[in-house]
Amino acid sequence: MEKLILFLNSFLSYFLLMAVIVVLAGVAIFIGIKMRKRKNQQAENESAAADVS
């Protein structure tokens, strides 16, 4: 029984670590997409302003 508890403890520890990594990666992807959309919008606005001039 002790080995089972040690195994579950180790498994849950690695599962929690994996969950943290997945959440951090998701946040990083979300921020990256948001920043890219903002940069594209800014470039579009600058090109529209240059066309008007």
Mean pLDDT over the full residue set: 94
What is the CA-based Rg, rounded?
23 Å
Which stretches are low in confidence, meaning pLDDT under 50 for 5 or more residues running? none
Measured as a percent range, the helix fraction is over 70%
Structural class: mainly alpha
Gap between N and C termini, in Å?
78 Å
Let me know the largest β-sheet. none
The SSE order reads H
Shape: rod-shaped
Strand content: under 5%
Number of helices: 1
Short description:
The protein has 53 residues and is mostly helical.
Please provide a written account of the structure.
The chain has one helix spanning 2-52. The chain has 53 residues and is an all-alpha fold. The longest helix is centred in the middle third of the chain and has 51 residues, at 2-52. The N and C termini lie far apart (78 Å). 0% of the residues are buried. The mean pLDDT is 94.
List the SSEs and their pairings.
Elements: H1 2-52
Features of this protein?
1 helix, rod-shaped, mainly alpha, 53 residues, 96% helix
